Amino acid sequence: MGIRDVVTIADDAWGVPHIRASSIPDAYFGQGYVVARDRLFQIDLQLRRDLGRLAESFGARFVPHDHAARLLLYRGDVEAELAALPAEVVACARGYVDGINARIAELEADPSLLPPEYGVLKLRPLRWDIADLVRIRSGDMGSSSDEVRRAQLAARGLLDLDALTAPLAWDWKPRLPEGLDVAAVSKADLGILGETEGPLPWNDAVLASYDPVYDRLDREAHGSNAWTISAARSATGRPILANDPHLGIGGFSPRHLAHLTAPGFDVIGAGSPGMPGIMQGHTDHYAFGRTNSHIDQEDLYILELKPDDPECYRHQDQWKRFATTTETIRVKDASDVVVTLRTAKHGPVLLHDPARRRATAMASVSLRPGANMTFAIIALNLAKNWEELAQAARLHVAPTNLHYADIDGNIGWRLLGHVPIRTRHDGLLPVPGDGRYDWQGIHPTGAMPTLRNPESGWFASANQFNLPPDWSPDKRVTSFTWNAPYRYDRIAQVLGESGKHGLKESVALQHDDLSLPAQALLPLLPRDLEGKAAQAAAMLRGWDARLGADSGPAALFEMLWIELGAACLAAIVPAAARDLVTSIDPRPMLALLTHPDARLGSEPEAARDALLAAALGRAWDAAECRFGADPAAWRWGDAHRVALRHPLSSRPAIAAAVPAIEGGRSGGDGYTVMARGYVAARNCTVSHGASFLIVCDIGNWDASQVLSLPGQSIDPRSPHYRDSYAAWLAGQARPFPFSRRAVDAHVRQVTELRP
């Protein structure tokens, strides 16, 4: 397989490839080729991880991770899955895979062109196969570890405390499933997934610094902002769509820009390396953006094993046999390891414990037939309008707020994602796997919530709770847990102001560093303070609550925020739950401080003031330790750095061959619109945020604005290795040329791919 005709790749001054083809599948061939050109080691490493093939290259410590990855591959009929997809979508996916392999073939012919990692590690890139795009499933909003935590709290009679860690939408109490022995539930029930929690074991230092609590908080804070503005509210007289997806920052960039054109097809934006298509951007007719929504797409099932045959489990009053497969994991410098993979009716078996006659299985939306998320982005790209997007949405498994704005002046929002139908439980705790709590299918995607052309003239999503009333718990629900609303509330403040909103204002809003949690906290600071607490309060009073990189009060506030989290937990969580309730969400924390109650004792306001005073003193000490003895020299950006390092940089040869991109200072935190989160247990280095930002001027496409971090290529030999780093730090968005005339004015290199 390959291209049918010549594909032209015109790279512009920023390294963005504008791919021109005579057919749509050939355009996707071009995208696969340029992704492999710019990001080969990134997509190769991810492919090895997804397929469970790390140990063969990196050694025995990766065997458990390979075991877990293989357990979560799709085990159904691959050819049937491909046959059920639209033929044009499959053709585009094949083109993408063929394009990756075409670039790999060039490198095999001339190994001197291989990215530097391959020479250091003595590796060769894996060839790609469209079957792997079917077998690798992704996109779930997992909840198994949360279910275990709630069961453990319930066993101690302390389930109400879970609201400190994970506040629930609505006034909802988790339901204890009939027949569940909560006292028997433990982290061991997570099986192989519990064993492989955390980062890949590239070195012992990485593992030593890993904190599961803060890692979970960091992952949950990954979100995105998006807003869509009607022509009536826009300063341009045309709709505006802005989007900045928040993903991990610190390793490889999670987005790669590209422009695909063919007869009847024209789409530009950012894609996820290794996944065909454009995830955020625009066609010649409409713009599209996305933010994570929330759908609980996993459940943990507790299975009873047959006493005399542990390969059978009880289900619907029968003993049913696990489906089993045996696989061999090749291991570098060691013997092969043979693993047995079991599957129950619910899904893959995470734990198999014959001694306790116990097993656990995980039901996952992504492992169902037809849950081919990897192909969904192509389908969305091929859609011509709002109605066709609704049809393409049937393939979209992952929970997503889809934003839309077209050249006819229409704007719209659609909730995407597969929602399991739970008729007898709420998904918040593990359930017995005897058949009573089995899923009853998936809610019809056509019935998911939508919004078109609202009277307000705008709408936004920032991972906040946004379900309409008819998606209430007594009818249907996607999830009970949602991100804190601070980013959305700030966006709503700005967009709700009178007047017109333009492109410049959208770029500025994407970089807004006003902290609503800080605004809520500052009025609570006690007046009668002494010593360091008094110094801290004096520094914070009168502060504008903006987390600028050059702000001293911002540096102190972040230290105070960390101290307050620990202090509130210590004050209200009993010793019997401190191993389980190890973090506090900002919503219950601010509620406790704003309206202190009996949990703080018989005189709650006095206790609150004492807690704040003590935290202020400790925050001052922490700031002196981190920023120095002179408060006038404190700057939040001095600790809140943006450092991008190769995932294997602990190996000196890799660190030398692929140097870190670092030194940049940042403002913001995980709750500002300019989301720049950090893992407090580790340091204040930025760990997630918007590495790609776009503001689309609907219809006047060449005026659209874009930013990306740090550049198009991960190869340090490329001029586009870090050429966008400084502009991204400064928030200096640039035009994103789309028309042939505008693109040609910026072209710096042209490559032709021939059949």
UniProtKB/TrEMBL annotation:
GO MF entries: metal ion binding; penicillin amidase activity
GO biological process: antibiotic biosynthetic process
One matching Pfam family: Penicil_amidase
UniProt superkingdom: Bacteria
Xref: InterPro entries: Ntn_hydrolases_N, Pen/GL7ACA/AHL_acylase, Penicillin_amidase_A-knob, Penicillin_amidase_dom1, Penicillin_amidase_N_B-knob, S45
EC number(s) from the headed UniProt entry: 3.5.1.11
Cofactors (names): Ca(2+)
Key words of the record: Calcium, Hydrolase, Metal-binding, Zymogen
Gene3D superfamilies reported in the protein's UniProt record: 1.10.1400.10, 2.30.120.10, Glutamine Phosphoribosylpyrophosphate, subunit 1, domain 1, Penicillin Amidohydrolase, domain 1
CC cofactor note: Binds 1 Ca(2+) ion per dimer.
Binding residues annotated for Ca(2+), in chain numbering: E147, D296, D299, D474
Assigned protein family: Belongs to the peptidase S45 family.
PANTHER family: ACYL-HOMOSERINE LACTONE ACYLASE QUIP, PEPTIDASE S45 PENICILLIN AMIDASE
Name of the protein this chain belongs to: Penicillin amidase
Organism this protein belongs to: Sphingomonas trueperi
Organism ancestry: Bacteria, Pseudomonadati, Pseudomonadota, Alphaproteobacteria, Sphingomonadales
